[in-house]
Amino acid sequence: MKELDLLKKDWQKNENSFEQVSEIEIYKMIHKKSSSIVKWILIISILEVLLWSCLSLCFDSDGYLKNIQHSELIGYFELLNYANYAVILIFIYSFYKRYKVISTIATTKQLMQDILKTRKTVQYYVWYNLGMLVFSLIVGFIIAFAYNPEMDTFKQQINSSAKIMAITIGVLSILSIALFGLLWLFYRVLYGTLLRRLYANYKELKKIDL
Asked: Which H/E stretch holds residue 148?
């Protein structure tokens, strides 16, 4: 925000007759920055979908279900996968709409409102993905324990020993928390940085609108 600080300093030095011009210049700069930030949110979300899609190709879930002789679950997973992509595409379309709206907004109040809407949409998107991670881990653990024949011996050991059960639950919990933490950190760095800049623009606009 160095450019904004310089503009505000010049604004304070000039005569009152130039106040409106300075406000317009600051608004234009914030408008441009906000539009650029939302564009990057859109681009990153698309790249993220492509990344997860490429990674999913490395894991043959259909082959795994066939191997444990429960291919009837494939249809359910495909349906869940389609539903997940549908939700993500809705979010991406929403980011695109926010970008188009912010790019053409003409008033300070409208821009402020849409900045807040964009921040909420991104936050919902992040929490949805984190929730899907937790859901996927839970489903994966249940399938591995309930349906994989190779786990039968291990299940007997767990049932016969409270200590082994406690250790298993502890390891799975630590693994889940670690994966959740890594994904949360990923979103915190990636989207969090953009949202902080977007909110800084909002606060600058709020000063102008007073």
From this structure: none
Rounded CA separation 8/67 (Å): 67
- What is the full DSSP assignment across 17-84? GGHHHHHHHHHHHHHHHHHHHHHHHHHHHHHHHHHHHHHHTT--HHHHHHHTT-GGGHHHHHHHHHHH
Place of tokens 């790019």: 103
If 0-12 CB within 10 Å is exposed, 13-18 middle and 19+ buried, where does residue 45 land? Answer: buried
Residues 115-145: tens digit of each pLDDT: 889 999 999 999 999 998 888 888 878 877 7
The percent of residues in the chain predicted with pLDDT above 70, rounded, is 79
Asked if 130 contacts 182 with a C-beta cutoff of 8 angstroms, the reply is no
**Spatial distance between the Cα atoms of 1 and 33, rounded to a whole number of angstroms:** 10
Structure tokens at 32: 């441009």
CA distances from 179 to 52, 54, 150, 176, 197 (A): 15, 19, 24, 5, 27
Where does 57-161 have alpha helices with state H?
Answer: 61-67, 74-104, 108-147, 152-160
What is the rounded distance in angstroms from the CA atom of residue 130 to the CA atom of residue 128?
A: 5
Q: Is 94 helix (H, G, I), strand (E, B) or coil?
A: helix
